[in-house]
Amino acid sequence: MSATDVLADAQRCAHGLRQDLGRWLEQSNLMDGPCRNQGGEDEANYALTWFPHYLISGDDAVLTRFRSLLADLARWVASSCLHGYEAAAEAHHGTEPFLMFLPRYLGLVPDDDVARALLEDAAHHIGNWVAEIPPWYDYERDVFRSYAIGSRVVDDAPQYQIELTEHLRFIHIALAAHRVLGEDRYLQWALRYGARRAERLVAAAEPLPLAWDLDGTQLHWQDAGERPHLASMCALSHKMPNDPLGGVENHLASGAVMAYADLYAASGDKLFQQAAGRIIAPLIEQLADPWADPAAAALSHYRQAFGDTSFDAAAL
Fold first, then answer.
1. Nearest to 277 by CA among 266, 296, 261, 265
2. Is 233 a residue whose pLDDT tops 90?
3. Cβ(292)–Cβ(284) under 8 Å?
4. pLDDT tens for residues 78-123?
5. How does residue 224 score in pLDDT terms, banded at 50, 70 and 90?
6. Residue 315, number of CB atoms within 10 A of its CB
7. Measured in whole angstroms, how far is the alpha carbon of residue 283 from the centre of its chain?
8. What was the pLDDT predicted at 273?
């Protein structure tokens, strides 16, 4: 096959892929209307694939769909939330509407006042910056007070006094708020909390823990007997018991490598590189697995963000 034939074949494949994504978008408009949360959760999260599709194709139908999703999200916040955030939530699902769609949309449409206001109202709670809302963050210990935190309810029951990697999602939201709003307090809080979590990760035993309690004690599978709530937490309830990579998977699922990379870019602090390296190291021997796409993506991001090729020989 000549080079011309190869190029023509690639162009046909690309055209077909764009057509398929366009049809998927049309189908979503017809089928994925607002459900019980009126667009406040998964409907917008399902749109993630269309961001790269739009960057490649420039299809205006994508932006039209995004604006529809934003309107649904705004209606849900106005009707079902208190001061821009769910009244009773937990760190896994409560963060998603303000983490997965809004910051990416604002990357495309930075001057959208509705989207900016939604992000700002949600981010206000992270560092206890709303007087009438129960405080989420314990500045004395640099931990979140609970896994179950909302704008009306912060549940201090013992089973919720635990920090999982979902709490790192608040770093993503704070960094997005800093980028969009330009307020330094969001960045300074992210650096402060990120450093505390990075210190704990760097000092952690092998295998990496599933979680930490609020005093910084590492929690592993063997602790589930004494803490039966541990295995019931959302991020852990889908896992195989005693999986030595359970703690690594938790970090990948909440974008920990990306969070530490962003904090490193903002500060130059090598602590964040060391923390990200703890997540990457156990993944190297998994790269040949057919389902290792998340591991490969994390390693690629690590190499680029930190300029560190020290894992290359082992990966090859």
1. 261
2. no
3. no
4. 988 999 999 999 999 899 989 989 999 999 999 999 999 999 999 9
5. low
6. 16
7. 19
8. 98
How much helix, strand and coil, in percent to the nearest 5, is found in the chain? 60, 5, 35
Reported for 249-254, long-range contacts at CB under 8 A and 24+ positions apart, including other chains, are 250/164, 250/165, 250/210, 250/211, 251/165, 251/168, 251/201, 251/208, 251/279, 252/279, 252/294, 252/295, 252/298, 253/165, 254/165, 254/166, 254/168, 254/169
The token pair that represents 16 in the structure block? 């077909």
3-31 and 50-57 helices, crossing angle to 10°: 130
Please check the confidence at residue 245 and state whether its pLDDT lies above 60: yes
The CB-side HSE value for 115 (13 A sphere, CA atoms) comes to: 22
Q: Are 277 and 283 a contacting pair, CB within 8 Å?
A: no
Q: pTM for this structure?
A: 0.92
CA distances from 189 to 127, 139, 169, 316 (A): 7, 10, 13, 38
Residue 13 main-chain phi, psi, to 5 deg: -65, -45
